[in-house]
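Example (one chain per record):
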Amino acid sequence: MKTKKKISPLLAVVILAVVILAVYAAISGLNRRAEIQNDPHYGMVEVYNGEDYIWIVPEEDVPKNDISKDDLATDPNGNLTYVGGEYKASRGVDISSFQGDIDWQAVYDSGVRFAIIRAGGRYYGSGELYSDDKFIENIEGARSAGIKVGAYFFSQAISVDEAREEAQCVLSLLGDRELDLPVFFDWERVVDDDARTHTLDNDTLTECAVTFCEDIKAAGLDAGVYVYNDTGYNGYDLSRLQDYTMWCASVGSYPYFYYAHTVWQYSFRGTVPGINGDCDLNMMFTK
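Predicted structure:
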């Protein structure tokens, strides 16, 4: 007759501890799932959009902005200045024919070191293309004053074919002229009964940006995409735009847009010697 082996006190304690831990883990898991179900912002981050704080689902494969409020200060002349240690920053403007004749030497002497110049655009109602009357004049004037130049096209493309047409329009206007900075795809939602773009889906919008940029790159130029809160948070698939320079509008005293960007547009009503009236102000960050 075999005798039953007795469980040692130590083994009994170990088994009891394992059971207790398993029960605790199960209860914790149930509590955690309940918390997730009851948390409407689970998996989201809160970001500032210039007016309010909003919740977004972050795109995991997109680098985050690492420039904070403490990295910016105002100099004695009232200009925003980068005082952080990670980047070299330069001041810039973006302009179009709306600014009229520009004294580019005065612009340079004021501290501006780059300009992003409108090449043209597409009308949001008719869909017709147009060129900026002062595009070439502004490119040549800025470069002659020692200012680095890039370009942008105000897109209202609703298909990849139209995006390709816009890229070819810019390349045709440029001819064999070189640029120091990218050609930017500037697509913006227009809220108007006549706008043909306000219902464009995000997949097509992203495809348009990629098509435009790839055509620009194929011509040997750098390409970029202009974003703002709406297209940045609710429009583009930013993970597909990481091969292009990001130019972001976040008007204020620091770049609060959640994702990393090279060019920051911080004012729509700046004043610069040599430019009549208001103009947009920018800062460019390079390692």
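Caption: The CA atoms of residues 18 and 205 lie 54 Å apart.
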